[in-house]
Design brief:
By secondary structure, the protein is of the alpha/beta class. About 55% of the residues lie in helices and about 10% in strands. It has 21 helices and 14 strands. The strands form 4 sheets. It has a 5-stranded parallel β-sheet, sandwiched between helices. A 4-stranded antiparallel β-sheet has the order 1-2-4-3. Helix 4 crosses helix 19 and helix 19 runs antiparallel to helix 20. The longest helix has 25 residues. It comes from Arenibacter echinorum. Belongs to the class-I aminoacyl-tRNA synthetase family. This is Arginine--tRNA ligase.
Length: about 600
């Protein structure tokens, strides 16, 4: 039991003993810096059960704790807050218990039941862009946090490899490509295919303009432009298994997959399983047919199939078009069912998808529940806000997307420019410098995005993200590197860093740092429960701030008392290990030198 659990139990005992009532829960919070104490019990919620003056109630409980709990050395009451002081011995014992733990804060897998986390889920008609960057970083980090909290996790993506948008790129390549390939152009395959998606849009708009100039209504022209009709015909041929169309589709999709693989590697994300809509949409159609027989769905006069969710506060939703072709909902139904067929231990799923799809997932989860799947009760939409740049919104059809590869390259260059200005890398080789710039640049990008609550929209400022001061990735990386420098110097002084130290007193800054370390396991669990890497990111920033305050106020290697010196080096080492562990959960590397 940690100290908070002990205190909760003893506070309940105090209330029972003194006031003759049972208290169901006790609310704690860290003691404010301007008051004496380490942990604070909040008295106000107790007033529903205990009548009286909160200051007097707090005083009586505090006295009980001081008499009954060895580690409680003092207390004070400020209004409705009972501030409790914990002994130095408790914190020293805590540190001795975690000092040599390699995976402090992490929990071993505690259940055979698995959670599947889906992220990325790109279309095979264009490269990954800034929106995909937030998606991938969030999904990957949530998967790692869930694993650290004790869950079994599968990381997956559904690749949107079918549909009219894919046919648009294919048709444009047929018309304008002159047989060019990634090899002949030197372009990544996803970029080459994306260029033809843009080329289709230009040709489509030109045809609309021609039709309008010939007196056709613009809305009619948008539906009857010859190039669009041809793309729709290509989609019908694909669904019918036309050999030539399917062959081109396989070739161009493979170009894109090869390109994606490079981007994922550079981004530092991976997947355990891949799913393709071209495989799962047919299963979705089967279950729509099954649901139709069971009365879950109904058919309209035109032959389209719908579900009526008005009794559930939603509306009617189409699940199959009148011509029998699938909609997104159809394939999402099939994908979810296929995943559980492939992995019977999956008892829940997390979908990392932008907040413009909030309604879609409410409908999907409800449909799966109505189809009778028990696991559908444990589906979660990790909804996130858009990422904007100072230059404005992105439009992929017009080719104004912020390309993920280019963004990562730009971040590396920004890190290089700032690092060169600071001028601390004179003894680095060019190769070492380039590797460091990449670690700093990607760390800056990832941290800037992940420190924000997923639901919030982000205005991403590259220069601000690479600042070596404030709540940024490079600031935290720099602190980690500073600690590594201390550890190298300690080794040069031939300190025995593994010996146990028997101290009786603690400097205020040492105690504050130990209190912050103690929060790491709890923070991992909270981040897992809330699917929020932001909790890990901001915990790490708070830890680093606490370390820097310790570093500025307490001598480490200059300390004359040998026991204190070794303890402080060990404490610094543990802080660096937690920084590294926390950043690994965010997919961020830490350099040993900066």
């Amino acid at each position: 039991m940690n100290i908070q659990e002990v205190l909760a139990q003893k506070v309940k005992e105090a209330v029972t003993s003194i006031f003759k009532v049972e208290l169901p829960t006790v609310e704690f919070q860290p003691t404010r810096k301007d008051f004496a104490g380490d942990i604070t019990a909040v008295i106000f919620p107790m007033l529903r059960y205990v009548k009286g003056n909160p200051v007097q109630i707090g005083g009586q409980i505090g006295q009980f704790l001081k008499e009954e709990v060895d580690d409680v050395t003092d207390f004070n009451v400020v209004k409705g807050f009972l501030n409790i002081t914990i002994s130095n011995e408790y914190y020293l014992d805590f540190f001795e218990g975690i000092r040599n733990l390699q995976d402090f804060g992490f929990v071993s897998q505690s259940s055979k039941d698995a959670i599947m986390v889906e992220y990325s889920s790109p279309n095979t008609n264009k490269p990954l862009h800034l929106g995909h960057v937030r998606n991938n970083l969030l999904g990957y980090s949530v998967a790692e946090i869930l694993k650290a909290s004790g869950k079994k996790v599968y990381k997956t993506q559904i690749i949107n490899d079918r549909g009219i948008h894919i046919c648009k790129s294919m048709l444009a390549w047929q018309r304008f490509g002159n047989g060019e390939t990634p090899e002949s152009t030197g372009l990544k395959g996803d970029k080459l295919v994306g260029n033809y998606y843009v080329a289709f849009d230009k040709a489509y708009k030109a045809e609309i303009a021609t039709l309008v100039s010939n007196g056709i209504d613009e809305k009619v022209a948008e539906k009857e432009a010859p190039i669009l009709l041809e793309a729709q015909e290509m989609l019908r041929k694909w669904e019918a298994g036309d050999e030539e169309v399917v062959g081109l589709w396989k070739t161009m999709n493979q170009w894109v997959y090869d390109g994606f693989e490079i981007t994922y590697k550079n981004m530092g994300v991976d997947f355990d399983q891949l799913y393709y809509e071209s495989n799962t949409y047919l299963l979705g159609k089967d279950f729509v047919e099954d649901g139709l027989q069971r009365g879950v769905f109904y058919k309209k006069e035109d032959g389209s199939v719908w579900i009526d969710l008005t009794d559930d506060g939603l509306d009617e939703k189409i699940v199959l078009r009148s011509d029998g072709t699938a909609v997104y909902m159809t394939q999402d139904i099939g994908t979810a069912i296929q995943r559980v067929k492939d992995n019977p231990d999956v008892k829940g799923m997390v979908y990392t998808v932008g907040n413009e799809q909030d309604y879609h997932f409410k409908v999907l989860f409800l449909i799966l529940q109505k189809l009778g799947f028990a696991w559908a009760e444990r589906l979660y939409h990790l909804s996130y806000g858009m990422v904007d740049l100072p230059s404005g919104k992105m439009k992929s059809r017009e080719g104004t997307v912020v390309d993920a590869d280019e963004l990562m390259d730009d971040m590396t260059q920004t890190a290089a420019d700032i690092s060169e200005e600071l001028g601390k890398l004179e003894d680095y080789s060019q190769e070492e410098k380039q590797e460091l710039y990449k670690i700093i640049g990607l760390g800056a990008l990832k941290y800037y995005i992940l420190k924000v609550d997923p639901k919030k929209r982000i205005l991403f400022n590259p220069e601000e993200s690479v600042d070596f001061q404030g709540n940024t990735g490079p600031f935290i990386q720099y602190t980690y590197a500073r600690i590594q420098s201390i550890l190298r110097k300690a080794e040069e002084l031939e300190q025995n860093l593994n010996s146990s130290q028997k101290l009786t007193d603690l400097h205020e800054k040492e105690k504050e740092l130990l209190k912050q370390l103690q929060l790491f396991p709890e923070t991992i669990q909270l981040a897992a429960e809330n699917y929020s890497p932001a909790l890990i990111a901001n915990y790490t920033y708070d830890l680093v701030k606490e370390f820097n305050s310790f570093y500025q106020n307490v001598s480490i290697l200059g300390e004359q008392d040998q026991n204190k010196k070794i303890f402080r080096v060990q404490l610094a080492k543990k802080v660096s290990e937690v920084i590294k562990s926390a950043f690994e959960l965010l997919g961020i590397q830490v350099p040993d030198r900066m």
